[in-house]
Amino acid sequence: IEELGKKKQVSLPEFVNKMAPKNGTEYLLAVCYFIEKVEQKPSFVVNDIIQAFKKLKFNHSNPYQAIAGARANGLLMEGGDGSKTMQLSQTGMEKARSILAGHGVTA
To answer: Each residue of 53-91: pLDDT tens digit?
Structure first.
């Protein structure tokens, strides 16, 4: 129920369930997209992703490897505020939007 035009923010688990990721890369994209677009953070660090995986109860065997792979595949890039931060690249953003659109979610 919306009260006085205030809409509640979707939770991380709700968002990821709507995205229905099929593999570790898609989980990573879902989490990163959520951080950037829903939480409106321009960049994030590795620990943000690890904490999100824990919140989702998604047990990735090696999140560092997933992040390195996403960087190597051009899905993530350095954030604007330092070398330890990262953000989705244009390619990563487009891939996340495509997955969302495939599930009828507009982003």
So the answer is: 999 999 888 889 999 999 999 999 998 766 689 999 999
HEC states along 12-28?
A: HHHHHHHHCCCCHHHHH
Task: Render pLDDT for 15-24 as a digit per residue (tens, 0 to 9).
Answer: 999 888 998 8
**Which residue bears the tokens 């979610």?**
105
The first and second tokens of residue 19, run together, are 């995205």
Nearest by Cα to 27 from 105, 96, 103: 96
Give the pair of three-digit tokens for residue 28: 């990573």
Measure the CA–CA gap between 64 and 67, rounded to whole angstroms.
5
Beta carbons within 8 Å of 23's beta carbon, 6+ residues apart: none
The greatest distance separating any two alpha carbons of the chain, rounded to the nearest whole angstrom, comes to 45
Are 99 and 26 within 8 A, CB to CB?
yes
Nearest one of 88, 73, 105 to 33, comparing CA atoms: 88
